[in-house]
Amino acid sequence: MTNPEVQKLLVMRKAFETVKKRQKANISKIPDLQERLHRLRVVREKYVGNPDIIEIAVENLKNNGFRVKFADNTEKAVKLLLKEINEEKVVVKSKSNVTKEINLEKELESKGINVIETDIGDRLIQILGEEPSHPTGPAAHLSVDYVVKVLNERFGINLERSPHAVIEYLKQDIKKYIDKANIGITGANAITAEGSVLILHNEGNVYEVMNRPRKWIILAGIDKFYPSIDEAVNAAKIQTFFATGAVSPSFIEIVSGVSKTADIEKKLYDGVHNPKEVVLILLDNNRSYLMNNGFREMFYCIGCGNCVVHCPSYSAFGGKFKGGRFALYSALYNGESDLELCLSCGRCKKNCPLGLDIPKMISKVRRGSELYNLLVSHAKWLTRAVYLETLAVYLTLRGELS
Description:
There is one protein chain. Helices cover about 50% and strands about 15% of the residues. The two termini are about 15 Å apart. By secondary structure, it is an alpha/beta fold. The protein contains 18 helices and 12 strands. The model has no long low-confidence stretch (mean pLDDT about 95). The protein has helices at about 5-25, 35-45, 50-65, 75-85, 95-100, 105-110, 120-130, 145-155, 165-180, 205-210, 230-245, 285-295, 305-310, 310-315, 325-335, 345-350, 360-365, 370-395; strands at about 65-70, 90-95, 115, 185, 190, 195-200, 215-220, 225, 250-255, 260-265, 265-270, 280-285. Strands 1-12-7-4-2-3 form a 6-stranded parallel β-sheet, with helices on both faces. It has a 4-stranded mixed β-sheet with strand order 8-5-6-9, with helices on both faces. Strands 10-11 form a two-stranded antiparallel sheet. The chain has 2 domains: about 5-10 and about 305-395, no CATH class; about 45-290, Rossmann fold (3-Layer(aba) Sandwich).
């Protein structure tokens, strides 16, 4: 029997090939892609960590009805969230790498607060106790067979072997908690100088989360600022294409404050519908320090995960080496990624929409000489890659890897 973790790795590799094929099929539909990439790089270079744009944006956010809080670190962010949640026992959230960064689910559940993911992939990961395999496709390593088998065994149900059956089951599970929750938590893909927050999603779950009756809480890093909605939308299109191969997401939410009306004498009145209250928590958590000490370029990242998709070491070792920018980030923040497995092949830089020089930044962090790391990483990778390729062929012939 194949090791389950190895099986998941092989499933993930096939999922990544699907993304590559979709990118290749759709790239001609964005004829101005290179121009858009150049625009985005210029904007990120100019505005990431720029205190002036943060000051302007925060003032406009407050004028638009947002309550804005700053958190220097994880501990402060969790305290702020607990204060905002108050006595609520169930909160729903959407996909957010920043909430994962501060271990939000674990921190809140230790206080008796049930945190429910509303994204299908994240909810699946949460229920099964898995680790995410991609920043925008967290369950890419889980086959339908595996998911159905575990769900049936764990919950005593009888789901048929069908992606639609799994999705419908998870959708009904999520809806129960959405109906109970008074507070929703999301991340943000971008925050603009005009005082707007932009969020991408395909499932429609973000709309449900942000429209909880009591409060919507947004948690975002201080690296998410853009000069305008136009530039934020450009980043959204690029992120979507490099994350999934699609030309645009199903939904782009652009929120510029609480709900309001001007239908009575053309005067503005807040709180007509949800969200009636919006809180934005801006997280530093060593971002300022790293930006000022040789790693500013790391925060130009838009989180598409294309570096992960093209990383040969991640495809061989999985979570032991988180892949591309995420390997570097994980090593700097919690030491969970073995940077000695980096091949210094440059594929992450080549396939990054912004051309981030991740190999150069990794070389600053990892121990040992470059020659030693080069030899050891390639020896380990070659052994592992040959084993996985051989196993993939064997399982395909047996019909166990479709």
